[in-house]
Amino acid sequence: MDKKQLSERDICTKFITPAVEKSGWDLQAQIREEVSFTAGRIIVRGKLHTRGEKRRADSVLYHQKNQPLAIIEAKDNKHKVGDGMQQALIYAEALDVPFAFSSNGDGFLFHDNRRRQKK
């Protein structure tokens, strides 16, 4: 199988989620995939209004129910491992979680936001 031909969703299903499970996370209780966490901002122009795009995290890891701990931003394998880190950091800040990961299915890049918060 050529990873470069797989979609982002396929990379999540075949590589990222199994790796997270193998490291000890419970798929049923601690991992949620494709988590929408904003409805999208409202854009007003004169008398017209529309809603922007929803924000959706590829995966959120939970310490306990309703206690998110980390964001995983997935990219397809045509991208580098860290190409999703900026997006993961934005989502982690929006959800107020300390940890962010980026992955393309080959490995993970990790960032600990707690360092930034101590300054």
Describe the structure.
- With 119 residues, the chain is α+β, with helices and mostly antiparallel strands.
- The chain has one domain (3-110): Alpha-Beta Complex (tt1808, chain A), CATH 3.90.1570.
- It is built from four helices and seven strands, in the order ααβββββαββα.
- It has helices at 8-22, 27-30, 85-95, 114-117, and strands spanning 31-38, 42-45, 48-51, 55-64, 67-74, 99-103, 108-112.
- A hairpin with a 2-residue loop joins strand 2 (42-45) and strand 3.
- It is globular, with a radius of gyration of 16 Å.
- 25% of the residues are buried.
Provide keyphrases for this structure.
119 residues, 4 helices, single chain, tt1808, chain A, five-stranded mixed β-sheet, 37% strand, alpha+beta, two-stranded antiparallel ribbon
Short structural description:
The protein has 119 residues and is α+β, with helices and mostly antiparallel strands. The protein has one domain: tt1808, chain A (Alpha-Beta Complex). The chain has helices spanning 8-22, 27-30, 85-95, 114-117, and strands at residues 31-38, 42-45, 48-51, 55-64, 67-74, 99-103, 108-112.
